[in-house]
Amino acid sequence: MTEARESAGPHALRAPGTPCWVSLMAHGLTATEEFYGALFGWEFRPGPRQFGPYVRALLDGHEVAGMGQLPPDHRLPIAWTPYLASDDVDRTAETVRLCGGTVAVGPLDAGEAGRLAIAADPCGAVFGIWQGPARLGTPVSGVPGTPAWNELLTFETESVTKFYASVFGYETEAAADAGTDRVTLRVDGHPVAALHGLGRALPRDRGPYWATCFQVTDTDGALRRVTALGGRVVRPAQDGPHGRVATVADPEGAVFSVVQEPR
């Protein structure tokens, strides 16, 4: 396995708005661990249990993601949720409400790890807010098995761009192509996430959602492992400016993408 390396520089300080964690809530936690462990080489250890069974995924001993088990009576969509850093989660949650979003969970303490809230933007896309020590969260990046990018898939970007810029203070940059509804979110000049307006191409039965992309060594090989492990391919691999990308779903239906860096 490629040795995971710790992030360094400004991003390690978790400036407000920086994606700092991803978490998945599933019905079958043990089976979910087996799937992602085989796909990404993750190992697991117990995490905070305020919300029931929860584990942290480790890559070479470094935390890269979290996974929890939904109560049996919950019928929420199974989805990866990115957490965005905040210096004051209570203040950020209040700003979410003032800007037309909703706060579904918290703010509340997550043991000694930090303080969190789970919110939704005015179009219904769910995201987390995280306040914690600078080094906590996802301390490795840029290697296979780690989150590489987060992107909001929504109907149109104009209104939600104003929302996220107001809540987190992002600098925003619209795509130069007039036919592309895409906005890059920047923190201190660095791109940290994107908003992508799909119009009628967005599935109506799902609505807007945040999508997480994980880095892999070989996209085509990852697709074969996904299907062998009981998942499915949602969008076949395609080469793009940022590498070879494909979208898949795990056995419970959680959608995510995988990307192989350009060679």
Summarize the structure in words.
- The protein is of the alpha+beta class and 263 residues long.
- 16% of the residues lie in helices and 41% in strands.
- It is built from 4 helices and 16 strands.
- The protein has helices at residues 29-40, 89-98, 158-168, 219-228; strands spanning 19-26, 43-46, 54-59, 62-69, 80-85, 102-109, 115-120, 126-131, 147-154, 171-174, 182-187, 190-197, 209-215, 232-240, 243-249, 255-260.
- The strands form 2 sheets. Strands 2-3-4-1-5-8-7-6 form an 8-stranded mixed beta sheet, covered by helices on one side. Strands 10-11-12-9-13-16-15-14 form an 8-stranded mixed beta sheet, with helices on one face.
- A hairpin with a 5-residue loop joins β6 and β7 (115-120).
- The radius of gyration is 17 Å and the shape is globular.
Q: Could you list the spans in which at least 5 consecutive residues all have pLDDT below 50?
A: 1-13
Cα distance spanning the termini: 19 Å
Which value, in Å, is the CA radius of gyration? 17 Å
Largest sheet, in brief, is:
8 strands, mixed
Number of helices: 4
Give the overall average pLDDT.
89
Question: What are the salient characteristics of this protein?
Answer:
single chain; 263 residues; alpha+beta; eight-stranded mixed sheet; 4 helices; disordered N terminus
